[in-house]
Each structure stands twice: as C-alpha cells, then as structure tokens.
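Hi everyone,

Forwarding the result from last night's run.
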Amino acid sequence: MFSKPPGRVSIVIFFFAGLALLALYGCSSSVDNPSARVTDTISDVLQPGKISPAHPFVVSTRGELDIKLATLTPPFANPLVLLLGLIGTNGACSFTSQQAVLTGNNISYGLVDAGSYCVALGDSTNGVLTTNESFTLTVVHP
C-alpha cells in the first residue's frame, strides 16, 4: 500500500538523523559548563564622584558572565554604577555597559565571547557618595 523504493526511505532517515545531530551539537556548544567557571575577586576603593580604576579579566571561552557587588564598606544603601568593557589592542578599557547595582546584587550578562574584558565601579551620575568606599566585586566567567 505505501511501498517506496528502499533507497528513498534510507535517504529520508539519514536526512532527519543528520538534522537531529546538528540540533544536539548546537545545544551542547551554546552554554559553558558551570563547573568550569572561574571566580575572580576584585577589591578597590571608590572615591565620591569618581570611577574606580578598571580591572582586567580574561574570558577563555564563550560562556556566561556574572558580576556581583559583594561588599561595600562603609555600608551604603543607594545604587552605584557597574561598568563593563572590552580591552582594546592598545590596552585601554572601553566601557560598553553600565548597570545600576546595589550591594549583594548579581548582574548577569548572559553569554559573552572569549576575550579581554574590564570592570569598574562608579559613583552614580548624581555623585551620591560622601566618603571613600572600599568594595569587592566577584566576577564569575568561563
């Protein structure tokens, strides 16, 4: 009733099997292995109305990037600015992202490509700090 030449059935089966393998490969290579992530701890001082020095870090392979403002001393309740950038061929940091951040907040940047990055903390655009703040950032990346 549904007779098809055996060669044609084989081609269709191989075609769909190939599509399934491509789909599996695409899924497995899109996200990093969480157990292979590295945590960098960055400590510095932020002055009122300023941006801290940029701190470099290297992402070795495409994967998820998370940055947390772990500590701020003395305690401060208003948001500050977390800056993320790329390090150019000249070695300078060029900030590409600014996010408001509170102590204890984790900022997830999703998937990022391998490369040389930099991070800094800044006083808000209104200059809300009244004294120097010691801070610690944790940068988790592949």
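Strands lie at 38-46, 55-59, 63-73, 80-87, 93-101, 106-112, 115-122, 133-141.

Cheers,
N.
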